[in-house]
UniProtKB/TrEMBL annotation:
GO biological process: methylation; siroheme biosynthetic process
Keyword Secreted part of the UniProt annotation: no
Classification via InterPro entries: 4pyrrol_Mease (IPR000878), 4pyrrol_Methylase_sf (IPR035996), 4pyrrole_Mease_sub1 (IPR014777), 4pyrrole_Mease_sub2 (IPR014776), CobA/CysG_C (IPR006366), Siro_Cobalamin_biosynth (IPR050161), Uropor_MeTrfase_CS (IPR003043)
Enzyme Commission number(s) of this protein: 2.1.1.107
Organism whose genome encodes this protein: Listeria fleischmannii 1991
Highest taxon of source: Bacteria
GO molecular function: uroporphyrin-III C-methyltransferase activity
Tetrapyrrole methylase domain: residues covered: 3-213
Keywords: Methyltransferase, Porphyrin biosynthesis, S-adenosyl-L-methionine, Transferase
Keyword Methyltransferase: yes
Protein name, as recorded: uroporphyrinogen-III C-methyltransferase
């Protein structure tokens, strides 16, 4: 019998991955990972590890939750170490309770490994402090909806009164969130920030008010995954955060190499704000990543390309 680890991958910056999560990824026999995990983390796994994608997009699931539960039990009974890798923290809107229940019914051992959740990660990288002695004494984390409930009775006004509200998975629900706040006498000029892909080099931030935020989102064509932050703390944040000032912020780099992936090499770029993808090429490449790379290249554009040959320390760089 194996053991299942429900692991938080953090918001996306590789250096926000916990040491325990990194250790488990290196030793895992099976990794079941979702859409909100930085896929570069999979390069930390051993070549014999099985990688299973179970990502969820709005209205499209690669695997339904019931199938994920079944896979955890199936592999947990037959394999060694199973890592269920989740974006952010598994216990905050990560459906971890449903997965724990199925593991307990199957009498399978498990551990929960916390990670940095989007509210603290994305806010920090956008320059927003969630609490402030002058304007915010509490923070509320909400999805604005629950299973089997449309949130009609949700009392949201208290979320932002002398505090900060963080709405997860809220882009489709932005009109509803605005409507409920206004119905509960929240001011039209309440500061609101929306952060997409927080802590990645592709991070986007929009700042406005409750009255203007929908129009700003439409103009910017902002998409999920995104975090909505509402409260006076937003107005106290700088226009440009420390992360957005890094020298490579906004650069989307494709690094093509014949050498094995190096976590240290990746951090050389991400620590300076870049959004990077490593594509290993050549007959000795890790072929587990062929399909993932094809999907990533189809969904993303790049500003810079780096080429590295086996046995060479020199890089040839070009811009598109």
């Amino acid at each position: 019998m194996g053991k299942v680890y429900l692991v938080g991958a953090g918001p996306g910056d590789p250096e926000l991955l916990t040491l325990k999560a990194m250790r488990l990824l290196k030793t895992a026999d099976v990794v079941i990972y979702d859409r909100l995990c930085n896929p570069l983390f999979l390069h930390l796994t051993k070549r014999t590890a099985k990688l299973i994608y179970c990502g969820k997009k709005p209205y499209h699931h690669a695997m339904k939750q019931e199938k994920i539960n079944e896979a955890l039990v199936e592999y947990g009974k037959s394999e060694g170490e199973i890592v269920r890798l989740k974006g952010g923290d598994p216990s905050i809107f990560g459906r971890v309770r449903e997965e724990i229940d199925c593991l307990e019914r199957a009498k399978l051992p498990y551990e929960i490994v916390p990670g940095i959740t989007a509210a603290s990660g994305a806010a920090a990288y956008a320059g927003v402090t969630l609490t402030d002695r002058e304007s915010s004494s509490h923070v509320t984390l909400s999805t604005a909806h629950r299973k089997g409930d449309h949130g009609e009775s949700e009392q949201m006004a208290g979320f932002t009164k002398h505090g900060t509200a963080c709405f997860y998975m809220g882009m489709e629900n932005l009109p509803f969130i605005k409507k409920k706040l206004l119905e509960q006498a929240v001011a039209l000029d309440l500061p609101v920030a929306i952060i997409s892909w927080g802590s990645y080099g592709r991070q986007k931030k929009i700042v406005g008010t409750l009255s203007s935020i929908e129009q700003l989102v439409e103009q910017a064509d902002l998409i999920n995954p995104a975090l909505i932050i509402a409260g006076d703390v937003v107005s106290r944040a700088p226009a440009e955060s420390w992360f957005e000032k890094l020298p490579l912020f906004g650069k989307k780099i494709l690094y093509i190499t014949e050498k094995p992936f190096s976590f240290e090499k990746m951090v050389e770029f991400t620590s300076r704000g870049a959004d990077i993808w490593f594509q290993e090429v050549g007959p000795n490449r890790d072929k587990r990543f062929d399909a993932l790379t094809k999907k990533f290249l189809k969904e993303n554009d790049f500003t810079d390309f780096y080429f590295e040959n086996e046995g060479s320390e020199a890089l040839f760089k070009t811009k598109c």
